[in-house]
## 1
Amino acid sequence: MDEMKKTLLYEPKNGYDRLDAAERMALEDYCRGYMDYLSAARTEREAVAEAVKLAEKAGFTDVESLTGPIRPGQKVYWSNRGKALLLAVGGKKPMSAGFVVEAAHVDAPRLDLKQLPLFEDTELGYLRTHYYGGIKKYQWTAIPLEIHGVAALKDGSTVEIVIGRDPADPQFVITDLLPHLAQDQMQKTLAKGVEGEKLCILAGSVPYAGEGDGRVKLAVMSLLNDRYGITEEDLISAELEAVPAFEVRELGLDRSLIGGYGQDDRVCAYAELAAILETENPERTAVCILADKEEIGSYGVTGMTSQAFEWFVEKLCGGTCTLQESFAHSFCVSADVTAALDPMYPEVSEKQNAARLNYGVGFCKFTGSRGKSGASDASAELVGYLRRLCDEGGVAWQMCELGKVDQGGGGTVALDMAMRNIDTIDAGVPVLSMHSPFETTAKFDCYMTYKCMKAAYNARG
Ligand code: MN
Ligand code: MN
């Protein structure tokens, strides 16, 4: 009967039961690189800037220098306004044979400063915020925050602003009520306990010397002016993001987990990036996308619905074929994280089809919610193809669904890629505490996602 069981039944395995010593070292090595990247990339702009540094070191040049179609082995990149990045390595086959594209996103939930953020109340200085992406607001109070971004000046120059990353810098906080006086607050739902307009960042308390109102606001503005030469009006054309100030750390006594902010989806972004930087002579052209704006619907010029993608692929085609021809023969891995089964909250998942930590890269045939609404739903053939790729490449993988059928759901850029007539499937790292200020992943799954990305780029067919 055991033999029969082995042949007929599908039995997923814990990844550590199949890992040898050599591969364990490779896994640790890869995760160190990822943790360094995540530490340096606190915003989408920084994620792009760090990726460009790595790409240039690996011999990638600006796509603007491309004359004619991309040549076999040629490596190019394009930074879309510093907030999204596209990279490509020329394949042996022409662009008319299609390309292999992997699409992750580098934006993450956060608190954006409003355009007129600064105010004073009861002689304390504050910065107003408008949250970006799906957050549980109560998680963002009483934790250390940093502010990163740019201010664009009227003369066309931009000032880069980073406060709180350097250990010598001050940091910020959004205060919360003490439990002693939270009787009313504690009766509210988690959704209403902390309101959006109350997510104001404490920015200073010392008044400017002299008399009159608004002296703390003036003092805070004066400090910003000392540091960056900007005025309150310059903040109107600034993009400033308050992000958690936690360090990226190994978690668990066995150090098998990674804790850090922004792992959705920089964990997959780094996996594709590491994979394409090591791709030399693929059969079909390899394309890597680090997209922006996924967390707010992929709209905007740096989001995945933007024609910026068409512009880039047209450059790669160099007039040798139409975009439609190239798209029709392409294959896309929409590389985004999925929810890991949380044993503390098993009620939201259906165990048999939920992703588990340490079981490898998670394939999602579909995303969406309640009746697959809004899903791209990859074909059986495509799932079969990815199974083969991963098995041949020694990649541990698992098939998964985000949560229980009626519980909710989510989406990725898979829709936007499929809309272009590109065969698309979701695959990525299972995450615990997704969208929180400190997300958890398993090193094994991070590493296997990288191996999956590599296997896709290096596919023979
Ligand atoms: Mn995501
Ligand atoms: Mn997300």
Note: The chain has a mean pLDDT of 96.
## 2
Amino acid sequence: MDFKYSGENVNKISTDLLVVGIFKGDKFHGSVKSVNDALGNALRELADDENFDGELGKSVDVSRTFGKIGAKRVLLLGLGDKLRFSSGTVRKAANITARKLRAAASHVTFGPEFNGGKGYIAALAEGVMLGAYGFDKYKTKNGEEGGIENVVIVSESMKDRRFEDEIFEAKAISESTCLARDMVNEPPVYMTPSRLADIASAVADEGGMRCEIFDLEEIKRRGMEGIAAVSRGSAEPPRFIHLTYEPRRKPKASLAVVGKGITFDSGGLCIKPADSMRTMKMDMAGAAAVLGIMKAVACLKPSVKVHGLISTCENMTGPAAYKPDDVIRAYNGKTIEVINTDAEGRIVLSDALSYAVNLKVDEIIDLATLTGACMVALGTYTAGVMGNSQKLIDRIIKAAGGAGEKMWQLPMDEELRPEIKSDVADMKNVGSRWGGAITAAMFLENFVGNTDWAHIDIAGPAYNEKESNWSPKGGTGFGVRTLVSYIMDR
Ligand code: BES
Ligand code: MN
Ligand code: ZN
């Protein structure tokens, strides 16, 4: 996709689609008024017919302009409440436009009202690129190809440099988010642990990053018994992946992002019912987000050192499968009593988190589709954030706000901690049903030592069962935008 800006009059610009925006309850003025006048009041009449009031997400479509203006088609988009207008509004508006259009227009122009200042161009470009996303690799082609190729942003004043910088950043973030989406959307027969490792190695090569991949033998040799145990029920061998981004100059800080990479979660011997097993190809969304983050980081070059760590395997029921009552010794030496083989994510993460501690990083952030309980607590659009450092949690939640991803903190309620005490080992892998997202986080806390750590449970927002207004069906790439923004501002 190619982005340009132009100072030309909105009525003159030759384009497939002109998008103009209006706040809720606002009168027609500026570009909206001049387009409406040129079209003989068509926007006004259609808006009234459809009871359009400028609400965010609503729009009026003028599908033909009969040569009265340069644009072939006009979309009047609601921008919602004027007082709440932000780069986030523009990202959503652009997303809706691209989503509505799909293959319908290849040249799209946005009116000047979308450029509200610093960061707005990036948000607009990001919105268009993410909104235009689709996963059709496995559809036999029906000639419906095409889509948005050129985007023009009308702007009276703009500096080349600022425009280029914002587009560059938007492209890095969108491409990385789409990589994560693609990985999640691939069927599990394709997206195996070894395929995931191949992609990691390609991302590392392309970005000039170090990449270490441990196979089963190396995983066992190093004492990563958690990953080894969970993978035993599967014919697919596990992988442990370590990518390193190193800034040119002495790093300001170092951090590790850790992803859960269960490429299919059948539940293991504690097998899931059929309805819950469907969509469990998405159980590697944390790992996909980590690779997206590393890809973006290699491109945007922050001044912090970033380690990307991934534990990846399948959770299956094969003859050698790990069992309830088994005891596993994790990489840091602590022992785990297996109560339920379906609580496998925390087991594979135990090795990755303790490995991160050994890297002596300043901070660890993990991303995992860890618990159904987190979805019960927060719904399917919001991630749960927990951890041992309030400062880190606050900064992540703040970054999420700016990036347009929803995150909410859940409390580490000390009264729940006894839930995971075990009689035979250092801990059990599950407590009771209640507070399941929290006891899962408390389990993970056993493996982070004294390192500042935040855990992001993305079970809800990582995957959409149905398309939402500004988010696609299937993999969403959740977490990439927040953490890239967090790392860039670190
Ligand atoms: N991968 C699941 C969590 C999950 C559920 C993610 C639904 C996305 C959508 C995880 O491995 C799991 O099975 N968790 C169990 C834990 C339980 C056995 C304590 C769960 O949430 O039911
Ligand atoms: Mn599970
Ligand atoms: Zn799982």
Note: The chain has 15 helices and 19 strands.
